[in-house]
Amino acid sequence: MNNVLEHRTWRYATKKFDATKKVSDADLETILEATRLSASSYGLQPYHLFVISDQEVKEQLKPASWNQSQITDASHIIVFANTTDFGEELVDEYIDNTSITRNIPAEALKGYGEFMKSKLLELPVETKNEWAARQVYIAFGNTMQAAAELKIDTCPMEGFEADKYNKILGLDAKNLNATVVLAIGYRSESDATQHLPKVRKSKQELFTHI
Asked: Structurally, what CATH architecture does the domain formed by 3-84+132-206 represent?
């Protein structure tokens, strides 16, 4: 089995974390950099990540997470929050960043910037919110895979109350909404889930080659 498939076979949604084991700063930085390098529509990355290791904050979030133990036992909790609404600033900041990073005059990028604005700025707020949330999941998948390559366990979590997360973390004031949560750390030896075979559709059911 090649490494790509080995990593995907190894990872599972960890239900019980070993609270005594912590992800190192170096490994955490690698995971976050892999996330930063993720693709997104137009490269705009309309989201922000909150990396939480503070135990008191995790304790506050647990009741809003259906009291799931992963929230307090995992080494870190990463809250992926999408931008709920945006204007020209989202595109303008990207154009400025591109100009600086690639040493291209901003004027030469003006046409591309206007094109993006024409496709995005007239969308209803609800559609903007949904589009941004979809971009979150691209980064989210890359985060899980990067962690698996480092043999760091994860648990993707949608079982939480976003409005309470938003209040605890002050997201509403930042024009953000908690989209999905990822617990990262190391599996407990008592987590029986790790020994179960993966349940997935067969290749015949899932793929059509044309």
From this structure: 3-Layer(aba) Sandwich (3.40)
Q: What is the C-alpha separation between 175 and 17, in angstroms, rounded? A: 32
H helices present in 74-157, as ranges: 88-102, 110-120, 125-149
pLDDT digits (tens, 9 = 90+) for 70-101: 999 999 999 999 999 999 999 999 999 999 99
Q: Give start and end residues of each alpha helix (H) in 37-80.
A: 55-61, 70-73
N-term to C-term CA, the chain: 26
The pTM of this model reads 0.96
DSSP three-state, residue 50: strand
Strands 176-185 vs 153-157: parallel, antiparallel or unpaired:
antiparallel
Of the candidates 207, 161, 208, 152, the residue with the CA atom closest to the CA atom of residue 181: 161
Residue 204 — φ and ψ, nearest 5°? Answer: -65, -35
